[in-house]
Automatic annotation (TrEMBL):
The entry's keywords: Zinc
GO molecular function: hydrolase activity, acting on carbon-nitrogen (but not peptide) bonds, in linear amides; S-adenosylmethionine-dependent methyltransferase activity
Species name: Mycobacterium adipatum
Superkingdom, taxonomy of origin: Bacteria
Stated name of the protein: Methyltransferase domain-containing protein
InterPro entries: GlcNAc_PI_deacetylase-related, LmbE-like_dom_sf, SAM-dependent_MTases_sf, SAM-MeTfrase_NodS-like
Biological processes, Gene Ontology terms: glycoside metabolic process; oligosaccharide biosynthetic process
Flavoprotein recorded as keyword: no
The UniProt record lists the keyword Metal-binding: no
């Protein structure tokens, strides 16, 4: 890992598309946190300042709290000078209450900005809280803030002394570093639930002192919040090999296609041809018409539809493209789709792994994004961006209502897409039910039709 470069919060930092579109993410495994906590049920999160716990792992902490896990957050400082009851300490207590009533807190009120002078004391106090059945989350050793880096050194020493499991979390690393600076082999990802992601967003809103400033450049600026609002969270294995090997094998595989397809196949097990009522429900017919209306060009060479279900939209797209390719995880749904038309190339597969290695000048994800978890979504968006032609469009269309029993909702999907895509927003339509966004180079249908410059 590269040594941290100087930075301030006033810098814009490395932007989200640069981070999230990097192909190295394709190699990053998921962390099997459940396997780790099964043998180490005590969880200690070490936060140098109030907000570090939420910025880094707020959604995961909310999920752990909801599961009844034994979680303690240690705030080493209260984030400022003066008496203990600073605004940030009050904000920290509020944030933890939002993340979950099961989370215990300890406030040590050490001097802000001076933790590097307290190494022995920090190591001793942390060692007194942990043992071999504890998972310790602490900042990464090169996060770039003096307090974060000092906390990392003390946590590493304490974890080694007490045979605890150590995992590092990045915050400012995302700000000063670039993808070339990262040891990607150390990264592991987590896919929190939608309630966890929502709790994290609400907890961050508690830190008003960090979200506001007289000069318009708050500590938690838009770039920091974009990173904090990802639909996934990230930890790093410790740099020290003896500590890394304690968690290196805790890898979770993604969902198999059969698992993704099961609930959709079950809806069709009785022979139902249109369980989603795409043919006769006014909302669904209108959604398909709006997607077609939002396409920027009259004609395309190649269109890909991701999550085509029983093929209604794909069939309509054949009137707008020379070639239409459609993919869905449900073989039963595709059996119906194949009976609709033989002019579409149908692919049975799960995204992102089974996406065809081809390029397209329009890629449509309509009411599919929220059936993916945060890691599947970002991986799919990264893949389709990679497969888009130079003047192509990515179209996202999702219901705006609340979801239940699925990983995400429309708001989360579209917010993540907006942060990840390095394309201009060409068009956006919203109503009480639906949001449709088209990402790609702005085009004028009028000028193309008239042949004007």
């Amino acid at each position: 890992m590269t040594e941290a470069r100087p930075f301030t919060h006033r810098d814009s930092g490395t932007d989200e598309p640069t981070w999230l579109l990097d192909a190295e993410w394709d190699t990053v495994p998921r962390l099997d946190l459940a396997a780790i906590t099964a043998r180490c049920p005590h969880i200690l999160v070490v936060a140098p300042h109030p907000d570090d716990e939420t910025l880094s792992l707020g959604a995961t902490l909310a999920d752990l709290s909801a599961s009844g896990a034994d979680v303690t957050v240690v705030f080493l400082t209260h984030g400022g000078d003066g008496p203990a009851a600073t605004p940030r300490r009050i904000e920290g207590d509020r944030a933890i209450a939002v993340l979950g009533g099961q989370i215990a807190t300890l406030w040590w009120d050490l001097p802000d900005g001076e933790l590097e002078t307290s190494h022995d004391d920090l190591r001793r106090r942390l060692a007194g809280l942990i043992d071999e059945r504890t998972v310790v989350f602490a900042p990464v050793e090169c996060d770039g803030h003096c307090d974060h880096d000092a906390t990392a050194r003390a946590a590493e020493a304490a974890a080694r002394q007490r045979s605890a499991v150590l995992l590092n979390y990045p915050i400012w690393l995302w700000h000063w570093a670039t993808p070339a600076d990262i040891d990607w082999s150390r990264l592991r990802t987590l896919a929190p639930s939608l309630p966890g992601l929502s709790a994290k967003r609400s907890a961050l809103a508690c830190y008003t002192s960090q979200l506001q400033s007289d000069d318009g450049l708050p500590i938690l600026g838009s770039s920091v919040l974009d990173r904090a609002h990802r639909t996934f969270e990230t930890v790093l294995l410790p740099a020290a090999s003896d500590l890394a090997e304690r968690v290196d094998a805790a890898v979770q595989t993604g969902r198999a296609r059969a698992v993704i397809a099961e609930p959709f196949d079950a809806m069709m097990v009785s022979g139902e041809q249109d369980p989603w009522h795409l043919d006769d429900f006014a909302y669904e017919r209108r959604r398909l018409e709006l997607v077609l209306a939002c396409l920027g060009r009259e004609r395309y060479q190649r269109i890909l539809e991701v999550g085509c279900a029983t093929g209604q939209l794909s069939e309509l797209l054949t009137g707008r493209a020379d070639t239409v390719v459609a993919i869905d995880a449900s073989e039963r749904a595709l059996d119906v789709a194949r009976n609709r038309t033989d002019t579409v190339r149908w692919i049975c597969g799960a995204v992102p792994d089974d996406l065809p290695e081809e390029t397209f000048d329009a890629i449509i994800l309509s009411e599919i994004g929220y059936f993916l978890d945060g890691l599947e979504l970002t991986a799919t968006l990264r893949r389709v961006r990679r497969q888009l032609t130079a003047r192509g469009e990515i179209v996202l269309a999702h219901w705006r209502g609340r979801t239940a029993g699925i990983p995400l909702d429309g708001a989360a999907v579209h917010a993540q897409a907006a942060a990840l895509l390095d394309l201009p927003l060409r068009a956006r339509y919203t109503d009480v039910d639906l949001v449709v966004e088209v990402w790609g180079e702005p085009v004028s249908v009028y000028r193309e039709y008239r042949g004007a410059s």
